[in-house]
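Suppose you are handed a protein chain with no further information: no name, no annotation, nothing but its sequence. What can you learn? This example shows the usual starting point.
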Amino acid sequence: MASPLPVDNKRVSSDSLDLTKKYAPEPPTTHHVVLGIVFTGTDHDPRTELAPIGIDLYGTMVPRTALNFYQYADTKKSYRNSENPWDRDLDRILPTGAIESVHFSPSPAEETSDMASLFQENFGLTHDRPGRVSMASDDEGSKFMIWTSGMPYEGDNVVFGQVTSGLKDLMDRVANVKKDENGKPDQPITISYTSMSVNKLPDPKRAHEQYLESLQDYQNGELDKGVTLKTYLYYDNQRDLEDTEYNQLHHPLPRIMLGISALIACYAVAKYRKRIFGRFSSKIISIRED
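A reasonable first move is to predict its three-dimensional structure. Written in structure tokens, the prediction is:
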């Protein structure tokens, strides 16, 4: 297991999350990206690889922004073999715990997908929960931010995704690395590898309409249409391991088998009691006669 990253004064923690709180439902997932985040140390403190961070992208809400990030991730697929391990991909930790990337060049407009012809970019998604991923642009290019807290934010960032696995490591470790007064990490934090997948929606418009219907129901008080952050904390293999350990501890089968064994033992004693206790009593009588 990887050792914890060095931390400064903690600003965020997954322990503070209310895992029962219901947030507004998520839009349809059009892409999924996994980032392998590595904290690069010194010769005396070797690099520590974190659990992969899984991010769902919402192309029916912001098709161009989602595709820009997807194509950015594609350029990092072979980054593990980079000749310069001191490159910084996540370059700043804001006071709120938001993790900010370095600038990168967005994809040209002609490279965008057909989704852009069906949906317009909008600001419908907000920074209302930990794990939101948004994009900002300026004269230097684009940069993305992963938010480790849910708080109102006024700015031009476009929310395009959500961390749906690995949120615990992101909040407890990456957001709390040692940094200077400007939020720059003392040691580089890099993206060592990525993997991507496209979720082919049979009918993107209908899927988006169903999302809007669920959102309206949630806003009208039907909280069961919402989602919690509980399943977002761990990466899939970590979650499977915890579920397995829990099931092993709480599964009723061992108790059922114990009960059946006890019943079988009681039945055997009742059926063969004369043989069992008869031999015992005859030995006692023979001892007395002697």
